[in-house]
Write a structure and sequence with these properties.
The chain has four helices and 15 strands. It is α+β, with helices and mostly antiparallel strands and about 190 residues long.
């Protein structure tokens, strides 16, 4: 059902602007990771038409089904950008930020979009280094530099990489984040 809603949302996006760009999403289907790419076609004297392509990315993402949870877990994030695939390992990801139906993946060099909710990211990438610190943010604890006060009496996390923005920590999660950060999971990238 969720996949159907995603496809419907992408088709709605492609239906509005006449010069639509291809849209892609990742789904798990029968224990496989599929990238679905949808493009609007211009066909003379015809109603709207779409081209749909499927690509099996199971091998490239290191996908396997967790026997305990039943969820398909991935070792690498499949990112589709400008006609190319990028496969990001968990170590490359510093911060994951909710952005509507997408997530914004922050790396030191670039930001990527991934059509996946934060909840789905935590299910698909169960690394103990990923920690949800706020309803809108997941951080990679390996790259956290400090937990401290920020503006508006909020607690924020900062990263070793200055290009990655500091993020707020939910008040109800401050003690759990302190425990996770102090547990020794964080390491400087140069270590």
């Amino acid at each position: 059902m969720k996949t159907r809603e995603k496809v419907r949302g992408i088709l709605d996006e492609l239906s509005t602007p006449p010069e639509s760009h291809p849209r892609s999403m990742v789904i798990d289907f029968l224990g496989r990771v599929l990238m679905i790419s949808l493009s609007r076609l211009t066909v003379p004297d015809s109603a709207m038409a779409w081209a749909v392509s499927f690509m099996d990315l199971s091998e490239q993402t290191g996908a396997c089904t967790n026997p305990q949870s039943g969820h398909l877990e991935l070792k690498k994030m499949p990112i589709y950008e400008k006609g190319q695939f990028h496969f990001l390992s968990a170590d490359q990801v510093y911060l994951i930020e909710a952005d509507g139906n997408y997530c914004r993946i922050h790396t030191p060099l670039k930001k990527f979009h991934l059509l996946m909710s934060l909840k789905a990211v935590l299910q698909r990438f169960p690394s103990s280094d990923f920690f949800r610190v706020h309803k809108s943010f997941i951080v990679n604890l390996r790259h956290v530099k400090a937990l401290g006060p920020g503006g508006d009496s909020r607690t924020v996390l900062s990263f070793y990489e200055p290009a990655i923005p500091a993020v707020p920590v939910s008040r109800r999660l401050v003690s759990a984040v302190k425990k996770a950060v102090s547990s020794g999971r964080t390491v400087h990238p140069a270590d």
